[in-house]
């Protein structure tokens, strides 16, 4: 294959929706990842300099008036949706569905990487910043360090990846929109529950979202790249042939 044939193939491939749409999504994902890095870096800097107290306290004070026993019962259920045991159960079910119904090996690989490495990253960040919690309560999985929130990051990775899988599926547009809104609602409610229960500062939750966004973007970007190279006629082999012929 010469250079002209290669670029002709590439331009033709770009005209197909299955080629340019993943490229567009990955470009958007890259932008989101950059914004997440900026947000996390800003929060991390302020944590190290102990400059988030006013922000945290203002959010906590705004929540105080709505506290009640009835709401507490609901919040205790919501916070379990981001717990380690629940994330583990849902992850196993997701892998089973992807394998037995979809035979989607690559999605399984990157889903496992997202969850497992995300959990490890959370522990590393917690020990690096070593921020004490506003309160410790083993009943709410509130032990160890506080920054970033493991519930916020874990729920973002789990439900965010599931939402991505639904959007990537052949389901109708309405189903995708509803699923996306439910995913967003789940993630926000879990983060709110950690603040309401007094086991995390608001800045912990924001940092968990930022770190989760960054790592999820990396995993989805990598998966989309693998799938794109797999299904498109524009392959790495074609690239190698062009440049090898050019250099020879």
Number of helices: 10
Number of domains: 1
Question: Secondary-structure element order, as H and E?
Answer: HHHHHHHHHH
Q: Rounded to an integer, what's the Rg over CA atoms?
A: 21 Å
What's the N-to-C terminus distance?
Answer: 13 Å
How many strand elements? 0
Which outline best applies?
Answer: globular
The main pleated sheet reads as: none
Q: How much of the polypeptide forms β-strand, as a percent range? A: under 5%
- SSE-based structural type: mainly alpha
Question: Can you lay out the helices and strands and say which pair or pack?
Answer:
Blueprint: H1 3-14, H2 17-48, H3 53-63, H4 69-80, H5 84-102, H6 105-129, H7 150-168, H8 173-196, H9 202-231, H10 236-247
Helix pairs in contact: 2-9, 4-8, 5-6, 5-7, 6-7, 6-9, 7-8, 7-9
Describe the structure.
The chain has 248 residues and is an all-alpha fold. The protein has one domain (3-247). It is 79% helix and 0% strand. The protein has 10 helices and no strands. The protein has helices spanning 3-14, 17-48, 53-63, 69-80, 84-102, 105-129, 150-168, 173-196, 202-231, 236-247. Helix 2 (17-48) runs antiparallel to helix 9 (202-231) and helix 5 (84-102) runs antiparallel to helix 6. It is globular. The two termini are 13 Å apart.
């Amino acid at each position: 294959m010469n250079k002209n044939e290669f670029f002709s193939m590439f331009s033709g491939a770009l005209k197909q929706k299955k080629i340019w749409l993943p490229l567009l999504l990955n470009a958007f994902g890259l932008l989101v990842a950059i914004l997440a890095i900026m947000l996390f870096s800003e929060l991390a800097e302020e944590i190290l300099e102990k400059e988030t107290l006013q922000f945290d306290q203002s959010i906590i004070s705004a929540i105080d008036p709505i506290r009640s026993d009835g709401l507490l019962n609901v919040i205790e259920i919501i916070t379990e949706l981001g717990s380690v045991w629940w994330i583990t159960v849902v992850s196993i079910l997701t892998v089973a569905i992807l394998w037995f119904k979809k035979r989607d090996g690559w999605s399984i690989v990157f889903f496992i990487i997202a969850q497992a490495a995300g959990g490890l990253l959370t522990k590393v960040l917690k020990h690096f910043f070593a921020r004490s919690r506003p309160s410790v309560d083993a009943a709410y999985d509130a032990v160890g360090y506080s920054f970033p929130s493991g519930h916020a990051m874990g729920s973002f990775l789990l439900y965010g990846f599931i939402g991505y899988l639904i959007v990537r599926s052949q389901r109708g547009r309405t189903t995708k929109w509803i699923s996306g809104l439910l995913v967003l609602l789940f993630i926000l409610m879990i983060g709110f529950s950690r603040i309401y229960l007094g086991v995390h500062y608001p800045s912990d939750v924001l940092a968990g979202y930022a770190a989760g966004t960054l790592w999820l973007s990396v995993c989805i970007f990598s998966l989309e790249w693998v799938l794109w190279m797999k299904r498109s006629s524009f392959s790495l082999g074609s690239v190698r042939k062009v440049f090898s012929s050019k250099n020879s």
